[in-house]
Amino acid sequence: MERPDAIQAQRGRTADLVPRLDFAPALTAGGPLADRVAEAIAQAASYLRNCTVPALVELLADGLHLDTATRDELTTLIEAPDHVGLLLPSSADRSMIDAAATDAGLRISGDTPSRVFSEELRELAAGQPVSTHIYWLHGEHAGARPLCVEAFVADADIGLMDGWLAAGVGTHVALRVRDRAALDRVQVLLAAHADRIPHFMHGAPMQNAASGSTVLYYDLPAGAGRGAVRVEMHHMVATAGSA
User: Full-prediction pTM beyond 0.70?
Assistant: First the structure.
């Protein structure tokens, strides 16, 4: 069994390893919408450029109070940070997102309707369908590691949207697992934490056939030096984005 003081020391370093993932201040601030969208996308790209698999696994281990053996096995199942996702205001259009992506060293590489996130928004909207679109923004890290930002745009009432943006709904960081079997193994390893899978997923991975992805979310509570955060376990059978 791992010593409690060793676990606590490791957790104490998490805030230093992983930058805070919070786009609400940028998206809900005053000023032109284009500037707010550009700031949020720039922050997402910066987050990706500054995170690593060990740091993100440690974030997950901290949030779920995982022991060393579980943390170490998780590390073997994960290939790389895959993407950061965020919800943008409904009035953000393609040209605005494209300009913001260019400023952040990214480009729009594709778009598609969302299945997974739109299901969450439907639940949050008391069962009313919420049409949601994903824009994939791709670029490269200085070390040639591909970067991807998922920008969601939902057709929702402004009152709902303002609340969702302030609460950080849709914000997440995704870890790409090595293969589909690895995603299944992650779920087994984290079976004791199934209550951290969002309700709308009904305890199991969800697929987006349009993008070729299978995803599983874990919502981590706020911890020392950071707010609550959603971590996605992501498997892609195609080459596009995610949920």
Answer: yes
